[in-house]
């Protein structure tokens, strides 16, 4: 994993994408983790509605993967990544502003968010694979996936030490 990290840091474009992904993950992951609680409290949801949100999470990711498997756009991957970031942020902002009777729209927005997340992930991993040597692409992707959670490891360690 250390080799993958060094390869990523030597490539200027991929290292900037890695820093951006670390920041996005730091701010977005807690929001996404609260979606079931938002279903309970904001929309007065039931266990069925929570399971529907979780099902839409998986279905949206699957739909995004299938969409890119069928339709392979000839757009630069970095533009797809930036567009996916923008759509993700906009969808999460819309979800946060919905009134208590907006559960159906919340479901559609949440499923769409996951579809764009799948497009983003595939574009990201493809750009990493294109930017590094073929024999190191798997190592770099693994390092990328591990290092994007560094802020959470740090916070967890600080919480344990302070308590």
Categorize the overall geometry.
globular
Strand fraction: under 5%
Q: What is the count of DSSP helices, taking H or I runs of 4+ residues?
A: 8
Summed over residues and divided by their number, the pLDDT gives a mean of: 81
Over all CA atoms, what is the radius of gyration?
18 Å
Q: Give the terminus-to-terminus CA distance.
A: 31 Å
Any key phrases for this structure?
mainly alpha
Task: Describe this structure as you would to a colleague.
The chain is built from eight helices and no strands. It has helices at 2-10, 12-33, 35-41, 47-70, 77-97, 103-131, 137-147, 150-162. It is globular and about 50 Å long. The model has no long low-confidence stretch (mean pLDDT 81).
Describe the secondary structure blueprint for this structure:
Blueprint: H1 2-10, H2 12-33, H3 35-41, H4 47-70, H5 77-97, H6 103-131, H7 137-147, H8 150-162
Short précis:
The protein is an all-alpha fold and 163 residues long. Helix content is 83%, strand content 0%.
């Amino acid at each position: 994993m250390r080799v993958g990290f060094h390869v990523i840091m030597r490539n200027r474009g991929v290292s900037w994408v890695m820093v951006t992904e670390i920041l996005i993950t730091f701010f977005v992951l807690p929001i996404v983790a609260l979606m079931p609680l938002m279903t309970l409290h904001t929309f007065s949801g039931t266990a069925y509605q929570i399971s529907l949100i979780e099902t839409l999470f998986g279905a949206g990711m699957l739909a995004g993967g299938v969409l890119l498997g069928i339709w392979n756009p000839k757009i630069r991957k970095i533009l797809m990544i930036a567009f996916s970031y923008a759509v993700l942020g906009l969808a999460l902002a819309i979800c946060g502003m919905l009134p208590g009777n907006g559960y159906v729209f919340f479901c559609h927005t949440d499923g769409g968010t996951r579809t764009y997340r799948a497009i983003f992930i595939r574009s990201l991993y493809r750009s990493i694979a294109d930017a590094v040597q073929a024999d190191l692409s798997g190592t770099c992707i693994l390092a990328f996936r591990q290092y994007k959670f560094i802020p959470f490891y740090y916070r967890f360690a600080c919480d344990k030490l302070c308590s």
